[in-house]
Amino acid sequence: MLRSLSFLVALAGVTIPALADPYATIISETAAARHGLARPWIGQLQVDRSSARLRYLVLYEGVLYAQSDRAMVHAIDAETGATLWYRQVGRPDHPSLTPGAGGDLLAVVNGSRLYVLNRFNGDLLLEKKLSGAPGAGPALSTRRAYVPMLNGMLVAYRIEPVTDPLKELGRIPPNLLGEENAEAQEERQTDIRLNTEYTRPLATQSYGRATVQPIVTIDTNVEEFVTWPTERGFLYTASVDPRDPDGLKPRYRLETRGPIVSQATYLPPDPRITGAVGTLLTASHDGYVYALNEKTGDTVWRYSCGEAIVERPALVLPRIFVTTQLGGMYSLDAKTGRQQWWAPHVRQFVAASDTRVYVFDMANQLLVLDIESGARLDSLWTGGLPVRLNNDQTDRIYLASETGLIQCLHELEHPEPMHHNQVAPEKPAQREAVQETLPAQQPAAGEAPGQPAAPAADPFSAPAQGAPAADPFSAPAQGAPAADPFGAPAEAAPAEGAPAADPFAAPPAQGGQAAEDPFANN
To answer: Is the pLDDT of residue 135 over 60?
Structure first.
């Protein structure tokens, strides 16, 4: 039996030990290729298979953070599968909740303590005892870690980094480029420090148990917005004004008729529209998907799916994908909430490209759907991989077993990751930029007769009465500068009796001579 298993793994092209995870299905490169997919990497985490189980996968800025129920955290390059670092965070006999990533930091709640790490190398920067029993993992802004509590409180702990020591000492010049800049940034990332001066945590109360990880939407020097749901069916939004560091103030709440058991999804404002605001998308057990104005809490639209919703809505602009508890997925327009299509028997969204959507059905098969119509295109059996990332950031599919075997899949046509929900500001048209930089045409001193300075005229218009049009493609006279075909036309008429060079110009008013053939040999 062991020989057979080793032989099968060898055929799959796996570079890890064959018995690293005997309970998981290894998707071979050949099997993936038959379905139009590539498997760029596969890896085994440092997990004690006898007692530990992988619980969470979090993707942030190209790094996959994996956490087990024995307090082990791994940081993995999401494109190559290389392990960047791993360490135990907290006590293995205490429960660990979903980690939160933001900026240069990674935050983990283990038991009743908050741990803040340098997300680039895993160094522990801060450890705090929480003021209550946590209900879910933290969310990070550039200045605070927001931790929801079982009693409904949301507590914000200050985690602001100290002034960058390299910049403060002048060791990073402001205008570094290329390799020098990369080296300086790498040095900075390894030397991150937090302000350890004690500051009183901020708190605000919500109604119901807060058991879902919050999200930070607005994070600027002017304000911070944080949103979290409760099991009583409320979605709360609070804000912190950095100019008033003692206040975490609620702004609004949405009341639904069922528990909210999944994170909200954030649709950021379009940077090309002045004054645009973002949209919050949340789903409830009452079967509705709600879209809210992030500033005021006003309902932009809502859509009824008719069944309880327990998964976070996945945003892949211009669509959102919503799966129901009893099986089925809706594709809705993110701006209006209009239904585009519905696919039956879908249980979980995992990824999407520009043409396909990848989901799991009720029988744990990976289905491939057409993104425009929802039609089923293909299916792939991936049994034994229950840990799946709901990835609406890129087109990569990340699947893992509970014993730490992680596999990555993507379409063969996309060797580079396709990033979703990123709207770049419009650039000015290149033609306009060229027109703005063209200098005005000026005649040279001592210009030959027939080429005096004159205001610009349309080179395709008819010549003045009595003057034939100049051929813009004819060779210049010996010793005369070449004429600009788009420059000013000559005002003076040629010698009396000269034929017109342009066959499409009006005939001369006097002389009665026929126009010269411009294609004849001179």
So the answer is: yes
d(C-alpha 252, C-alpha 249), whole Å: 10
Residue 272 token pair: 């090309």
Cα separation of 154 and 227, whole Å?
A: 10
DSSP, res 21: -
Q: Dihedrals φ, ψ of 97, to 5°?
A: -105, 170
CA 205 centroid distance within chain: 32
**Phi, psi dihedral angles at 190 (to 5 degrees):** -85, -5
Q: In 3-state terms, what secondary structure has residue 223?
A: coil
DSSP 510: S
pTM value is 0.76
Q: Which one, of 106, 140, 119, lies nearest residue 217 by Cα? A: 140
CA distance 394 to 86: 24
Helix (H) or strand (E) holding 320: strand 319-323
Helix (H) or strand (E) holding 42: strand 37-44
Looking only at the bridges linking them, the beta strands covering 124-129 and 113-118 are antiparallel
Three-state SS for 460?
Answer: coil
Nearest CA among 232, 200, 226 for reference residue 213 = 226
Structure tokens at 312: 């976070």
The β-bridge relationship of strands 405-411 and 37-44 is antiparallel
Torsional sign, CA 464, 468, 469, 475: negative
Distances, alpha carbon 262 to alpha carbons 136, 210, 328, 510, in Å = 11, 11, 17, 88
List, as one string, the DSSP characters of 186-216: HHHHTT--B--S--PPEEEE-SS---S--EE
Backbone angles phi and psi of 36, in degrees to 5? 75, 20
Whether the predicted pLDDT of 153 surpasses 70: yes
Q: Answer whether 117's CB lies under 8 Å from 99's CB.
A: no
Max alpha carbon distance in the chain (Å)? 108
CA angle at 400 for the pair 399 and 405, rounded to the nearest 5°: 130
**Amino acid letter, 206:** S
Burial class (CB in 10 A: 0-12, 13-18, 19+), 345: middle
**Amino acid letter at 453?**
A
Per-residue pLDDT at 191: 84
**Sign (positive/negative) of CA torsion 253, 257, 261, 266?**
negative
Beta bridge partners of 330: 322, 342
Average pLDDT over residues 121-142: 95
Q: Which of 394, 286, 297, 299 minimizes the C-alpha distance to 350?
A: 394
What is the chain's mean pLDDT, rounded?
82
| CA–CA distances in Å: residue 403 to residues 4, 8, 27, 63, 73 | 21, 19, 16, 20, 14
Say how far apart CA 457 and CA 442 lie, in whole Å. Answer: 14
User: What's the CA gap between 102 and 229, in Å, rounded?
Assistant: 20
